[in-house]
Specification:
CATH architecture of the largest domain: 3-Layer(aba) Sandwich
Strand order of the largest sheet: 12-11-8-13-16-17-18-19
Number of helices: 16
Oligomer: single chain
Distance between the termini: 40 Å
Radius of gyration: 25 Å
Number of strands: 19
Bound molecules: cytidine-5'-monophosphate
Shape: elongated
Length: 421
């Protein structure tokens, strides 16, 4: 499981507004995390209906979950509060998704057989299969997780249409160490948010360069730029949400890896060039958001350059390879198998400069943005420039813009694959 700890900066508020989520808890110590998850869902704008098994109520109380969800909690199928006494029907008909977190080994075994002797399993069985997705977040001891019965049950549940999420690895409440920890609330929030994003890049392999590069002058100093990497990281997240397999090549930035994204860290333009070119054979799309240094000192000093009698230091400079231009010139790009997108960060004449850059680099799409207005910011405004003209994406959170760009790129690729121009 990739190391992801949610970044508030890449997550716009209200990702789940207008979504009605049924949060189910079955018995397990991971129930304590469900309380935090419930709060996170509400913060993202969801209405949350909590349904618990009696076992879950041994770990965390319905009172806690009611206070966090701001809704009455259901535990029993005999709950007299429902006028028709059919909580299992009433609670699911308007749900956008049911998320059972934690899903215990016992609860999944029960679901597999279509058993329904408590409200939560009854509700899962009674949900409309086509309109209410069921997500299960397993949580159990590592031996229970590895047991063939559990693995077999999960495979069957997937076949029956459930989305069985992965598990984390590490310390377990029982004192053992291994697979079977429930995903963290941030990771579950991501899974649920991604569920509602259209899978427009399903199965595509996306390569993204992000952040600045750092060109060493000596062992302790170098030149770099103000790129934070936020736009590239937002694009990596949006592409993953859209069903892509994402490979991110990141310069020196201080950002968590987006959930589910594979990341290679590099420092210099030369390292970034090598890391990107190594992936070109298998990529369907390359998005170059990195602010790559144009030049580097021809020779970095072996020892720290001291202030002193020799006056100001001077360097011979050499030009760095243009990664985007090299990828665009690759036979796979030329054959139309690899779609290249560039970013132009300018300080003036944005449209004209970005248009010229698109032609010079030989790419079908160039995204223009104003450097000082985007570097380090959580939002941005973009110009989308192709051979036909220019489209504006007005200022918004970078994740929102990234989702719009992903949809735009997917549309272009699908159009291209249908043989249209
Ligand atoms: O720096 P420049 O304005 O030329 O950047 C435009 C685009 O080219 C960006 O997408 C950037 O990631 C890419 N680029 C690159 N390698 C370079 C310089 C820029 O991939 N050496």
């Amino acid at each position: 499981m990739p190391n992801y700890r949610g970044s508030a900066t890449l997550r716009p508020m209200s990702d789940l507004s207008n979504k009605h989520i049924v949060l189910g808890l079955s018995g397990g110590i991971a129930c304590y995390k469900a309380a935090e998850l419930c709060r996170a869902l509400v913060k993202q704008g969801a209405t949350v209906q909590v349904v618990m098994t009696e076992a879950a109520a041994q770990f965390v109380t319905p009172v806690t979950m009611q206070a966090l969800s701001n809704q009455a909690v259901y535990v029993s199928q005999w709950d007299p509060r429902e006028p028709n006494n059919m909580a299992h029907i009433n609670l699911t008909r308007h749900a956008h998704a049911i998320l059972v977190a934690p899903a215990s080994a016992d609860f999944m075994a029960k679901l597999l057989h279509g058993r329904a002797d408590d409200l939560l399993s009854l509700m899962c069985l009674a949900r409309p299969l086509d309109t209410v997705p069921l997500l299960l977040a397993p949580a159990m001891n590592k031996e229970m997780w590895a047991h063939p019965a559990t693995q077999r049950n999960m495979a069957q549940l997937r076949q029956d249409g459930a989305i069985v999420l992965g598990v984390g690895q590490g310390d377990q409440a029982c004192g053992e160490v291994g697979d079977g920890r429930m995903l963290e609330p941030d990771e579950l929030l991501y899974e649920l948010t991604a569920l509602f994003q259209p899978k427009v890049l399903h199965g595509k392999k996306i390569l993204i360069s992000a952040g600045p590069t750092y060109e060493a002058m000596d062992p302790v100093r170098g030149i770099t730029n103000l790129s934070s990497g936020k736009m590239g990281f937002a694009l990596a997240r949006a592409a993953h949400e859209a069903g892509a397999n994402v490979q991110l090549v990141a310069g020196p930035v201080n950002l968590p890896t987006p959930y589910g994204v594979a990341r290679t860290d590099v420092r210099s333009a030369l390292e970034m060039h090598t890391a990107v070119m190594a992936q070109v054979e298998r990529a369907d799309i390359f998005i170059a958001t990195a602010a790559v240094a144009d030049w580097r000192p021809a020779q970095a000093a072996a020892e720290k350059i001291k202030k002193g009698s020799e006056g100001l230091p001077s360097f011979d400079w050499v030009e760095n390879p243009d990664i985007l231009a090299d990828v665009a010139a690759h036979p796979r790009s030329q054959a139309g198998d690899l779609y290249c997108v560039g970013f132009a960060a300018e300080t003036q004449y944005l449209q004209a400069q970005a248009q010229a850059k698109r032609e010079r680099k030989g790419v079908p799409l160039m995204i223009g943005n104003l450097g000082p207005a985007t570097f380090g910011q959580d939002d941005n405004a973009l110009l989308v420039i192709d051979a036909q003209g220019v489209k504006e994406l007005p200022r918004a959170a970078k994740l929102i813009l990234a989702r719009q760009l992903v949809a735009d790129i997917a549309m272009r690729i699908n159009t291209k694959n249908k043989g249209q121009t």
